[in-house]
Amino acid sequence: MAQDVIQALQQQLPIMPQQAQFGFPKIILFLTEQEYEQLGVDFDVNQVYELELSGQAIRFRKAL
User: Fold this and answer.
1) Which of 8, 59, 60, 63 is most buried by a 10 A CB count?
2) Residues of the chain with confidence (pLDDT) below 70
3) Residue 57 has what pLDDT?
4) Which residues pair with 53 in a beta bridge?
């Protein structure tokens, strides 16, 4: 699942710098309950998170 997300994001990278001029790019994740649990992150509704892609890992942390 994580590899699919990373591949989808990598395909969008050429577009992202243009979008950054107009605001922060957004990602909406549609996850099954099992996928959500596998991420190991307790997301809060309407909380903004920073996303870090490193190798084949995805890390989320609350934005300040």
Assistant:
1) 60
2) 9-23
3) 86
4) 58
pLDDT for position 13: 59
What pTM was estimated for this model as a whole? 0.50
Phi, then psi, of 3 in degrees rounded to 5: -65, -40
Residue-by-residue DSSP string for 1-64: -HHHHHHHHHHHTTTHHHHHTTS---------HHHHHHHT----TT--EEEEEETTEEEEEE--
What's the distance, CA 49 to chain centroid?
Answer: 8
* Residues 6 and 58: beta-carbon distance below 8 Å: yes
Q: For residue 61, give every residue at least 6 positions away whose Cβ sits within 8 Å of its Cβ, in sequence order, or none.
A: 49, 50, 52
Token duo for residue 22 = 């107009």
Token readout for 6 is 């990373």
